[in-house]
Automatic annotation (TrEMBL):
<keyword id="KW-0732">Signal</keyword>
<keyword id="KW-0378">Hydrolase</keyword>
<protein>
    <submittedName>
        <fullName>2',3'-cyclic-nucleotide 2'-phosphodiesterase/3'-nucleotidase</fullName>
        <ecNumber>3.1.3.6</ecNumber>
        <ecNumber>3.1.4.16</ecNumber>
    </submittedName>
</protein>
<dbReference type="Pfam" id="PF00149">
    <property type="entry name" value="Metallophos"/>
</dbReference>
<keyword id="KW-0479">Metal-binding</keyword>
<dbReference type="GO" id="GO:0030288">
    <property type="term" value="C:outer membrane-bounded periplasmic space"/>
</dbReference>
<feature type="domain" description="Calcineurin-like phosphoesterase">
    <location>
        <begin position="54"/>
        <end position="303"/>
    </location>
</feature>
<dbReference type="InterPro" id="IPR004843">
    <property type="entry name" value="Calcineurin-like_PHP"/>
</dbReference>
<feature type="domain" description="5'-Nucleotidase C-terminal">
    <location>
        <begin position="385"/>
        <end position="562"/>
    </location>
</feature>
<dbReference type="InterPro" id="IPR006311">
    <property type="entry name" value="TAT_signal"/>
</dbReference>
<dbReference type="InterPro" id="IPR008334">
    <property type="entry name" value="5'-Nucleotdase_C"/>
</dbReference>
<dbReference type="Pfam" id="PF02872">
    <property type="entry name" value="5_nucleotid_C"/>
</dbReference>
<dbReference type="GO" id="GO:0008254">
    <property type="term" value="F:3'-nucleotidase activity"/>
</dbReference>
<keyword id="KW-0547">Nucleotide-binding</keyword>
<dbReference type="InterPro" id="IPR029052">
    <property type="entry name" value="Metallo-depent_PP-like"/>
</dbReference>
<dbReference type="InterPro" id="IPR006179">
    <property type="entry name" value="5_nucleotidase/apyrase"/>
</dbReference>
<dbReference type="InterPro" id="IPR041827">
    <property type="entry name" value="CpdB_N"/>
</dbReference>
Length: 609
């Protein structure tokens, strides 16, 4: 750890906004007047009886500044016509402030800011914001953009921890707004490692300020997913547990509105099995179980939920929730109306919606501030590292053993092989990996950094763990639940074959180094057939060294056995960089060097393809 923000910043950042522009914005919800309450220093002035304000919300921006796809080296495009990036969202925010009054609008984010694009990677690893060789590092483009947009607060997302605590602390230093994490605690003292909340004052001419408490909560899964970066340093209790502690505190501070920004989805689910006692997607449970919350900005799950209401179990009051998708696809807008009763503001109505920024232009100021950074990264990702003898596509990687996936397996096996002890080197070595992108393609001819980055889109590092034959079979059975059951004799439709039970592509591991069939005619748990190593059936007590990424090795996606398995190898280098290094060293990527068909889908023993 570097330092505690408790020493650097006030525990609660109070930012009073001036009333001048608010007065000018009186057209929105100023209502009829009543005498100002005694004791508020307003004497006998006439005060507004009603007032309105808005909270705008983004989430899961993942390093998207401009409407650009660095992997495709082209403007972003998808079938739904979405645009990406905060540059367009900034224009929508400007419009909201103009329409409602500058100081009637707060701006909040729900986390996952600094990881996810080549732009974000560049300023974490290539020219890191933490600096190199004693030199000061550059400013993070997301800090520059979000400072320009005047964010009031952001919750910490789990991906904030991917590059280590030093990078996160440097990003925090560069932001003009607090990064909130009421359930990110120092492991030894259990004191907050980040600011839990901030209180914003909305000035109302001739009346008491409206005090808005913003509480930030992050994802307990960080303890699993980024164990290498946070283990022994930080702990992450549940959202409900910490909200129960801090919501009453905000009310005791006199907050008229309590707003939560949660890096946690809506459905009460978790992806980590029994690894943690806490819930991953707990925003609905927070709303149900913690009294005193007005609204919640939801993040983490990359879905659009314009408006969703949960009734609090204790008070019967409605809690309003909204999730604005991801990447700057949408902007959530929470509108609040309040009335003054005996000197206390009370929320009388609230509503939420999401706005689509795809119809507005990018903010010219953000363009001016960050165009040079963008161009630098475009140049970087287009750097050639070698050539490829054939086109390698990931289009069918979710149901066929394709050479592009064998490239990942090859690099993982070769890298682990060099780092094993003599005893472990005598054991059979295999690899597991997931198809992260169906659109990935390494072209025949020149291979650039972006071609490889487009295949391995996450910043995972490499591990090797030891599993027995029985455990390996359990592991592969768990992966095989990715497919829906298709009885023998029934035609297989690849459009509906996968993602059974919301088990997504990034969660589905295939293995290299062993041979096996996946019988999709069978029910879950009985699908792995003919599992063998070097032509011999795998024995239950046979021990394998399994090359695997850190996310999975630490329990990500809830695979059995792997999190508690003995470590045979670990590296802090990213698998993507290992792949780039492999092509740089060999000069030529030739599928003849690594492509092996070792698994296939069957129906009652008959190959599907």
């Amino acid at each position: 750890m570097t330092h505690s923000p408790m020493n650097r910043r006030e525990f609660v950042k109070k930012s009073a906004v001036t009333g001048a522009a608010v007065a000018a914005a009186g057209a929105v919800g100023s209502g009829s007047a009543e005498a100002a309450e005694q004791g508020h220093g307003h004497g006998h002035e006439k005060a507004p009886r009603t007032w309105s304000f808005s909270i705008l919300g983004t989430t899961d921006l993942h390093g998207h500044v401009f409407d650009w796809d660095y992997y495709a080296d082209a403007p972003y495009t998808d079938k739904a016509g979405n645009s990406v990036g905060v540059a367009r969202v900034a224009t929508l925010i400007k419009q909201q402030r103009e329409a409602k009054g500058e100081h009637r609008v707060l701006l909040v984010d729900a986390g996952d800011i600094i990881q996810g694009t080549s732009l974000a990677y560049y300023f974490a690893r290539v020219d890191p914001i933490t600096g190199t060789d004693g030199k000061r590092g550059p400013k993070h483009p997301m800090a520059v953009a979000m400072n320009h947009m005047r964010y009031d607060a952001a919750a910490l997302g789990n991906h904030e921890f991917n590059y280590g605590i030093d990078t996160l602390r440097k990003f925090e230093d560069q932001c003009d707004f607090p990064l909130l994490g009421a359930n990110a605690l120092h492991a030894k003292t259990l004191r907050p490692a980040f600011e839990p909340y901030t209180v914003k004052h909305i000035k109302v001419p001739g009346a008491p300020d409206i005090k808005v408490g913003i509480l930030g909560l992050t994802n307990p899964g960080i303890a699993i997913w980024d164990k290498d970066n946070v283990g022994g340093k930080l702990v992450f209790p549940g959202l409900v547990e910490q909200a129960k502690k801090y919501v009453p505190r905000l009310r005791a501070l006199g907050c008229d509105v309590v707003f939560l920004t949660d890096h946690s989805g809506l459905d009460g689910s978790s992806s980590w099995g029994d690894e943690l006692p806490y819930i991953e997607n707990a925003s609905n449970l927070v709303a149900e179980q913690v009294p005193g919350i007005d609204a919640i900005l939801v993040g983490h799950t990359h879905v659009e939920v314009p408006s969703y209401t949960v009734k609090n179990d204790e008070t019967g009051e409605d809690v309003l929730l909204s999730e604005p998708y991801c990447w700057g696809y949408r902007l959530s807008v929470f509108d609040f109306e309040l009335e003054l009763h005996h000197g206390q503001w009370k929320v009388t109505s609230k509503k939420a919606q999401t706005l689509n920024p795809n119809g507005v232009a990018e903010d010219p100021q953000i363009k001016k501030l960050l165009e040079a950074d963008h161009e630098l990264v475009v140049k970087y990702v287009n750097t050639p590292v070698g050539t490829c003898t054939a086109d390698l596509s990931a289009a069918e990687s979710c149901w066929k053993d394709v050479p592009i996936m064998d490239f990942i397996h090859k690099v993982q096996i070769e890298t682990v092989k060099t780092g094993l002890s003599a005893a472990d080197a005598a054991l059979p070595l295999i690899s597991v990996a997931a198809p992260f992108s169906r659109t990935a393609d390494i072209p025949q001819g020149n291979v650039t950094i972006k071609d490889i980055a487009g295949l391995y889109i996450y910043d995972n590092t490499l591990y090797a763990k030891k599993l027995t034959g029985a455990q390996l079979k359990d592991y592969l059975e768990y992966a095989a639940k990715y497919y829906i059951q298709v009885p023998a004799g029934t035609e297989v439709d690849t459009a509906t074959l996968t993602n059974a039970n919301s088990f997504w592509d990034y969660m589905y591991d295939t293995a290299a180094g062993v041979d096996y069939d996946i019988d999709i005619a069978q029910p879950e748990g009985s699908r792995i057939k003919n599992l063998s190593y070097n032509g011999t059936a795998v024995a239950d007590d046979q021990v394998f060294v399994v090359a695997v990424n850190n996310y999975r090795a630490n329990g990500g996606s809830g695979y059995p056995h792997i999190a508690s398995a003995e470590i045979a190898y670990s590296s802090t280098n990213e698998i993507r960089d290992m792949m780039i290094d492999y092509v740089t060293a060999t000069k030529t990527l030739d599928p003849a060097d690594f492509a092996v068909t070792n698994w296939k889908l069957t129906q009652a023993g008959t190959p599907v393809f």
